[in-house]
Specification:
It contains 20 helices and 13 strands. The chain is of the alpha/beta class and about 475 residues long.
Length: about 475
């Protein structure tokens, strides 16, 4: 991957404040100053000596740095229980990194990484632990999406991680902070808790929604590449559909992230910019649902038969397109290599976007890690592990293990060889500058996601689009009101 794209990532994904100062030289006079007409008179007597030496100017005092709440905490020997969701190769790589930290950290901190189920299972366990009001039932570090951790903080269950980040003793330097893309660094900050800047969690990685396409199949159908408009998508999908052969253009997942990505790709949204309300009745949402319903009725798209069934069918040359997370790249690669018709050329692209503008809009997301309230020693120890885990060397290593995207600029710059060896990963990474987010700012979003999925399914089953979206909007805004502190 060229450095051009890495620097584009650095400059475009992140909104990094810059101050440009210009120092102009003093302007030269246009003519020489006139010569004095006569010499200055000599002094008639020497100036009187001062009676005492002038006082030396006092050196300015260093500004005092306010002591942080963890400055006097000693994390030595603390044990950190980490609930995570990783399995298989990712878990193996994760455990190797945890072992390295345990053996090398100067405080003798021991991190115990425990698989606690998927995101939903971990969320349910956290809600139960919070309801029990017993810190001994809590992990010291856990994973969650921003909307999930916002739900935890409604019960005041989390540590504000700004205490760690801003600590003169334990925190990050300005240089380290600037090494994170601004949009990613601030993604887990909530304006509704604490003093209006409550850092609920910290990002170790990110991924995004993308269009997976079979390039060989597209070429067979007479197309040079993936669609850039939704009309092209429909044409290609229908061209690939053959009932006798069991092939179809696209397999639908009604997941809320697919729903969101299709709307974003049209340069639309379904919530107000200030987060004060959901808006599912706008024209872009209606057009998106109507478009997918029409394709579904034509038979050019069909519902996924089972979880991850679209990956299997993609590898078996049964579906031309799928839409999903770039974190699934290794699984698609495996599906293609083990497919019924042998390997073929494939890739990832932005969802069709030319209907709404000249640039794609990508749905960027990812779970972060958060520190529940337990003991000060364990809270600090958890942060010290997170700080180590997100350092550039470890961040690049984890990106290679997990196939997530790194969150440090310097980590990405160090991954040139990996990009070259994994061209589809590089292809996806190049889309990072065009990212936006779902309604993860809302503690209600877990419920709203479920409502979105139910509405999408109902529309495909024949429910009236306008009435369904009106009900979705009403229910979503009720949930928003109930989950706003």
């Amino acid at each position: 991957m060229s450095k051009k794209w890495i620097y584009l990532f650095v400059l475009a994904v992140l909104v990094v404040p810059m101050i440009l100062t210009a120092c102009g030289a003093t302007e030269e006079p246009t003519t020489a100053p006139p010569e004095p007409t006569e010499a200055a008179p000599e002094p008639t007597e020497a100036a009187a000596e001062p009676t005492e030496a002038p006082e030396e100017p006092e050196e300015p005092e260093e500004p005092e740095v306010a002591a942080g709440p963890y400055d006097d905490v000693d994390p030595t020997g603390a044990t950190v229980l980490w609930w995570h969701q990783h399995t298989q190769e990712r878990e193996e790589g994760l455990l190797e990194m945890v072992t390295e930290f345990n053996e090398t950290n100067e405080w003798g901190i021991e991190v115990v990484a425990e698989y606690a189920g998927g995101y939903g299972e971990i969320y349910d366990k956290m809600i139960a632990a919070i309801a029990a009001d017993d810190p001994t039932l809590m992990p010291n570090l856990t994973v969650g999406y921003a909307n999930q951790v916002a739900k935890y903080q409604l019960s005041d269950a989390l540590v504000d991680m700004d205490y760690f980040v801003d600590s003169a003793k334990w925190g990050l330097t300005e240089e380290e902070i600037n090494d994170f893309p601004q949009g990613i660094f601030e993604a887990d900050v909530s304006p509704v808790f604490g003093d209006g800047h409550f850092r609920m969690a910290f990002p170790p990685n990110r991924s995004m929604e993308a269009l997976y396409y079979n390039l060989d199949w597209l070429n067979e159908l007479g197309y040079d590449g993936p669609p850039t408009t939704w009309a092209e998508f429909a044409e290609m999908a229908c061209a690939a559909t053959d009932a006798d052969a069991g092939t179809v253009g696209y397999e639908i997942s009604t997941d809320a992230s697919r729903f969101s990505s299709m709307i974003f790709s049209r340069h639309g949204t379904y919530f107000l910019e200030d987060g004060s309300a959901f808006d599912f009745e706008n024209d872009t949402v209606k057009e998106t649902m109507s478009f997918m319903k029409d394709l579904y009725d034509q038979g050019c798209v069909r519902l996924i038969a089972e979880r991850y069934g679209d990956q299997t069918d993609f590898g078996n040359y049964k579906t031309l397109f799928t839409i999903g997370s770039t974190s699934g790249l290794p699984y698609y690669d495996s599906a293609v290599k083990s497919g019924e018709q042998g390997e073929f050329l494939w890739g990832v692209a932005p969802l069709p976007y030319m209907d709404g503008g000249d640039e794609p809009v990508m749905n960027l997301y990812g779970a972060s890690v958060t520190v529940p309230k337990t003991t000060p020693e364990q809270e600090l120890a958890a942060w010290l592990f997170v700080k180590w885990f997100t350092e550039p060397e470890q961040n690049a290593r984890w990106a290679k293990i997990s196939n997530y995207f790194p969150v440090r600029k310097s980590a990405a710059e160090a991954m040139t060889d990996y990009f070259e060896a994994n061209p589809v990963y590089a292809q996806a990474f190049e889309l990072m500058p065009y990212s936006t987010y779902e309604a993860q700012w809302c503690a209600c979003y877990e419920e709203v996601r479920r409502l979105m999925e139910e509405s999408y399914s109902a529309i495909l089953d024949g429910a009236d689009i306008d009435a369904t979206l009106a009900q979705l909007q009403e229910d979503a805004n009720v949930s928003l009101a109930e989950n706003t502190p």
